[in-house]
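User: Reviewer 2 asked us to show a designed sequence for the structure in our supplementary figure. I'm pasting the structure tokens here. Could you produce the per-position amino acids so we can include them in the response letter?
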């Protein structure tokens, strides 16, 4: 493995040599220079990951070399070697942007630890930057497909929201309409993009866990709280927090959330200190929140706070030709993924798709295309490739549940037994793959794991 490249600039030949041996032995790439000028030249040529720089050089001072290096790369990691007790120079060095300094004569073990820590930081930083840029291109505005007037309105909203950084966003729409996707696009196209996007599914977690998840806790707040833990609000500072299925949040948690939105502050569980954060809240729900307010399940004041910026994602069946557009988009995507060459929908399927009510919306469309493209080897997707519910004469009774054979015994049944049964079934089908089982049940992996734990299915061989 490439452990990184170190440039050693020192005029003492013996020291240079022993440093070189020391680092080479550990698998680093090593370049050396005896003067400031040579050091700078080698720096430009090799762009090392870390520079070990003696402050006393025969031509120019180490501090000057440091400044020049920083001009080339402001993020360069430079460790200065100073004379023993020369605190003033050390302070100057740190001010000029050196990562750290070591005093001569130095302890090699300590230097090794310092160097490996510094390089670890570099590689982590690189990884994070790379990931971030990948995410922000993955969640560009053009990752949301649609040209229908309703979707154009949605785009308009999303663009304004992303640019404005205004507070809270509420995304409403049936399951599978793209709420997750829109939430991510808003975050990754806002000025918050390089800060965290934290998400929590309010259905997945029981109330007590939601609070510790959101607000964190102090050491000793409860029996299991062996150490302090930060909550998602703290971790998301500067970024966004995505509260999925907010319609399922309990009233008492809603009250706490409202306080956070109003005051921008909160306390960790068991804590006394107010914690202030700058977090944009993006909430989503497939419930009609207005209706939930009327029914007394959702706080009206919170509803008004959340819907400052409302985004409504229309059901797929109302998006007209977007259905075909999306189908072709997914065909393209899976062509690449599965190395297939499906050309598109047949005319008949296009017609069926435009009439079908899509109870599972875009998710259903995506899953169906994926399934057909795994199973079939045809040029065009044809009616005979479609599951039976697509070829009914009358769609008025279509509900997903009809495809599962449900019977309630005369003595009644515990709904949890059904839930458990479905989870076991999904795990069986996916041979214990939790990510795929969760997908089958339209649950997040956390939500699935929570239920598995509840039913004692975790840690069991499936
Ligand atoms: N307009 C769209 N363009 C492209 N992909 C979409 C669109 N809407 C949804 N999807 C995809 O469909 C799937 C379901 O969307 P998701 O955002 O999870 O829906 P929801 O959160 O509303 O249930 C995801 O894979 C998502 O990327
Ligand atoms: Mg979702």
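Assistant: Here is a per-position design you can include in the supplement:
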């Amino acid at each position: 493995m490439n452990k990184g490249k170190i440039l050693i600039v020192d005029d003492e030949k013996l020291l240079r040599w022993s440093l070189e041996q020391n680092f080479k032995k550990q698998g680093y790439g090593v370049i050396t220079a005896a003067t400031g000028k040579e050091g700078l030249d080698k720096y430009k040529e090799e762009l090392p990951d870390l520079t070990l720089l003696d402050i006393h050089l025969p031509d120019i001072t180490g501090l000057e070399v440091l400044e020049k290096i920083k001009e080339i790369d402001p993020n360069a990691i430079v460790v200065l070697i100073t004379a023993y007790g020369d605190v003033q120079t050390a302070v100057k060095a740190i001010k000029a942007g050196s990562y750290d300094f070591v005093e001569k004569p130095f302890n090699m073990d300590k230097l090794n630890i310092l160097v490996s820590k510094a390089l670890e930081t570099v590689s982590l930083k690189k990884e994070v930057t790379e990931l971030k840029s990948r995410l922000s291109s993955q969640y560009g505005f053009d990752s949301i497909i649609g040209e229908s007037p309703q979707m154009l309105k949605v785009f308009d909203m999303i663009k304004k929201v992303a640019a404005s950084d205004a507070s809270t966003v509420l995304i409403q729409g049936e399951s599978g309409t793209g709420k997750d996707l829109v939430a991510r696009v808003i975050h990754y196209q806002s000025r918050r993009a390089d800060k965290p996007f934290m998400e929590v599914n309010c259905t997945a977690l029981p109330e007590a866990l939601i609070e510790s998840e959101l607000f964190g806790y102090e050491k000793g707040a409860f029996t299991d709280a062996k150490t302090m833990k930060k909550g998602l609000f703290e971790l998301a500072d500067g970024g966004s927090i995505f509260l999925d299925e907010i319609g399922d949040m309990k009233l008492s948690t809603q009250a706490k959330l409202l306080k956070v939105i109003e005051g921008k502050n909160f306390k960790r569980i068991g804590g006394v200190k107010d914690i202030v954060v700058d977090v944009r809240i993006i909430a989503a729900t497939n419930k009609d929140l207005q209706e939930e307010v009327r029914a007394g399940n959702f706080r009206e004041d919170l509803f008004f706070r959340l819907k400052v910026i409302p985004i409504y994602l229309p059901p797929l069946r109302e998006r007209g030709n977007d259905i075909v557009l999306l189908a072709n988009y997914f065909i393209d995507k899976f062509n690449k993924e599965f190395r297939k060459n499906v050309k598109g929908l047949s005319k008949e399927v296009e017609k069926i798709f435009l009439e079908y009510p899509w109870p599972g919306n875009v998710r259903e469309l995506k899953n169906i295309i994926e399934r057909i493209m795994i199973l079939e080897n045809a040029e065009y997707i044809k009616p005979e490739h479609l599951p039976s519910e697509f070829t009914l004469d009358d769609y008025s009774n279509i509900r997903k549940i009809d495809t599962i054979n449900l019977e309630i015994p005369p003595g009644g049944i515990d709904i949890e037994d059904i839930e458990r049964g479905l989870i076991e079934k999904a795990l069986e089908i996916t041979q214990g793959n939790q990510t795929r089982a969760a997908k089958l049940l339209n649950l997040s992996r956390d939500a699935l794991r929570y239920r598995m734990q509840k039913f004692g299915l975790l840690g069991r061989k499936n």
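For the response letter, you might also mention the following. The radius of gyration is 29 Å. The chain is about 45% helix and 15% strand.
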